[in-house]
Amino acid sequence: MKTPNGYDLGEAVQYHYGKFPPVIGDYARIVKPLTRATAALARYDQMLKSLHNNDILLAPLRSQEAVISSRMEGTVSTLDEVLRIEAEFDEAADEAHGNARSEAVEVYLYSRAMALAQKSIQEGAPISNWLIRSAHRVLLGFGRGAHQSPGEFKTEQNYLADRLHRQILFVPISPEFLNDGMEALFRYMADDDQEILIRTALAHLEFEALHPFKDGNGRIGRMLIPLMLWKAGTISEPYFYVSDYFERNKDEYIDRMRAASASGAWDDWVLFFLSALEAQARQNLETAEKIASLYEEMKERFRDILYSKWTISALDFIFTRPVFRNSSFTSRSGIPGPTAHKFTRSLVDAGLLRTLEAASGRRPALYAFEPLLELVRS
Q1: Predicted TM-score of the model (pTM)
Q2: Cis (ω within 30 of 0) for the bond into 21?
Q3: How many CA atoms lie within 13 A of 357 on its CB side?
Q4: What share of the chain is helix, strand, coil (3-state, %, to 5)?
Q5: N or C, which end of the chain has less CB nearby within 10 Å?
Q6: Residue of 16, 97, 204, 211 marked active site
Q7: What is the Cα–Cα distance from 306 to 308, expressed in whole angstroms?
């Protein structure tokens, strides 16, 4: 097999032709980890259900997931950068693209791709070729990815490589077998007779092994995890973010997936994945509880500072967009313009909003809600 740019193929693992879906060999090893992961997810989901509006409270976590998942693929940005792009996008999409680093825009597009997939599933679409290609088209719609055939499956062999040591780690399925592989994957994902956490574990590995796109496979593959859990009813909303665990254990993440193809160690991969779900569910629960507590604390602070019937509207807007232009606040919060302007001045004076950019000419001021950003960054 011809290697790209002289990379060493000696340690490469080949795709596991004809071996998906595998038969789990030792359920006795899996029962307890499966029970623990299921219980941890249930506790997290109960927390989601108790939130008065989880879409508002967990919006910054979706942006943080985009940052971490993208960083695993070498696209480095920060939460603050991504939220700033979201604020600019509220003003004008072209300006948002033009003033930001391309890497930060790519991370921002992860959130938009996830939102598109979520909306499609809400409208009844199955998890399918169409769904992931649509999400991929958004994900790679700008910057470097725009030259990597957005929304189109690969037509040439691709590889997973250790660029530092110039070694090929994994050779995904060949393009001529990809359509059959994708059909088998989606049949398996839709098989309700298979336990959902194990099904999600194996589907995630298989998607990464198929590596159907020229670029963006890891990010799309990690998107599929909450979408599968949500569609199956395991979580009530698709707000479960696991990339942080995978990044902190990246070497094991890669090694376990390679071992499944190399030696049939599918059970070991499932155990790793269940540990990831359990640990991340605990961490996500802790973070969600802190955000909910902050919301309740800020509700009282905002009432004392603003003393208005629009207090909750202001609070909800700022939790959803912790970095925002003043013009968006006045036009999108539903608060009358003069009142909204007064609110931002009062919140800045109280130290709850930080001015990132002062108003200049026709360009409105840019603010950051530091209490929430400090919590999510940590």
Answers
A1: 0.89
A2: yes
A3: 16
A4: 65, 5, 30
A5: C
A6: 211
A7: 6
Is residue 211 part of the annotated active site? The answer reads yes
Q: Is 222 known to sit in a ligand binding site? A: yes
Is 7 labeled as ligand-binding?
Answer: no
| One CATH from 3.20.20.140, 1.10.3290.10, 3.40.640.10, 1.50.10.20 for 13-287 | 1.10.3290.10
- In the prediction, which pLDDT does 141 show? 82
Two tokens, residue 76: 């480095």
How far from each other are the two terminal CA atoms of the chain, in whole angstroms? 45
Mean pLDDT for all residues in the chain: 88
The HSE-up count of residue 356 (CA atoms within 13 Å, CB side) is: 18
Residue range(s) occupied by CATH 1.10.10.10 in the chain: 307-377
- How many CB atoms are located within 10 Å of the residue 187 CB? 10
Please determine, for residue 98, whether its predicted confidence score (pLDDT) is greater than 50.
no
219 is in an annotated binding site: yes
CA distance 205 to 203: 5
The answer to whether residue 166 scores a pLDDT higher than 90 is no
* Residue 126 CA, distance from chain mean position: 19
The CATH 1.10.3290.10 portion of the chain extends over 13-287
Does 217 appear as a known binding residue? yes
Considering the segment(s) 307-377 as one domain, its CATH architecture is Orthogonal Bundle (1.10)
Angstrom distances, CA of residue 166 to CA of 15, 161, 170, 256: 19, 7, 12, 21
253 annotated binding-site participant: yes
Residues in CB range of 336: below 8 A, 6 or more apart: 310
Q: Is 211 annotated as a binding residue?
A: yes
